[in-house]
Amino acid sequence: MVEPKSLREIYFFSDLNDNELGVISKVLKEKDFKTGATVFKEGEDGQSLYIIKRGEVKACKSTPEGDLLTLMLHKDGEIFGEMSFLDGRPRSATIVAITDTKTYVLEQGDFETLVDNHPRLIYKLLKNIVFHIHSIVRGMNSRYLEMINYMWGRKR
């Protein structure tokens, strides 16, 4: 069990009340990764959501030559693994710890168990996951427009 007070410091859980923090702390597991450790690989099965308590990881895609290209960085308080967590499909990227990293892990099965008994808590967690995904999409849209403007020399 994770100490509920330790969750209060993490942005992903910031809108949960004390009771909800107590509930979620009972199903979270702590997992540490040393610098350079692969958390999971692109294409692997996985239905876990990771919340970074401390540290930093990079999300990478493999090139045809087998090199890893960094897509984005995730740091303290951010989440990763949300896509497979929600849709059950294989991991879309490789995640590598770039510093010693401490995470909390929420398994899909534990999440589903909470659905019936704690719907308000699940609503808040899903809302925070959606906000996270929206920020990624907005950032991608912005970078796409910058690239188009650079390539074509005008605004579209």
Characterization of the model:
This protein has a 4-stranded antiparallel sheet. Strands 2-7-4-5 form a 4-stranded antiparallel sheet, with no helix packed on it. With 156 residues, it is of the alpha+beta class. 22% of the residues are buried. 40% of the residues lie in helices and 28% in strands. The chain has one domain (29-152): Jelly Rolls, CATH 2.60.120.10.
Provide key terms for this protein:
Jelly Rolls; four-stranded antiparallel β-sheet; 156 residues; alpha+beta
Q: Quick one: CATH class?
A: Mainly Beta
CATH topology: Jelly Rolls
The domain count comes to 1
Count of alpha and pi helical runs: 5
> Which term fits the overall shape?
globular
Secondary-structure-derived class: alpha+beta
The count of DSSP E runs of length 2 or more, i.e. the number of strands, is 8
Rg over CA atoms, rounded to whole Å, is 17 Å
What percent of the residues sit in helical stretches (DSSP H or I)?
25-40%
First-to-last CA distance: 52 Å
Q: Architecture, CATH level 2?
A: Sandwich
Biggest sheet overview: 4 strands, antiparallel
- Give the full name of the CATH homologous superfamily: Jelly Rolls
Mean pLDDT: 91
Low-confidence stretches: none
Strand coverage percent:
25-35%
Strands of the widest sheet, in order across it, are 1-8-3-6
What's the arrangement of secondary structure elements?
Layout: H1 4-7, H2 18-25, E1 29-33, E2 38-40, E3 48-54, E4 56-62, E5 68-75, E6 79-80, H3 82-87, E7 94-97, E8 101-107, H4 108-117, H5 119-152
Antiparallel strand pairs: 1-8, 2-7, 3-6, 3-8, 4-5, 4-7
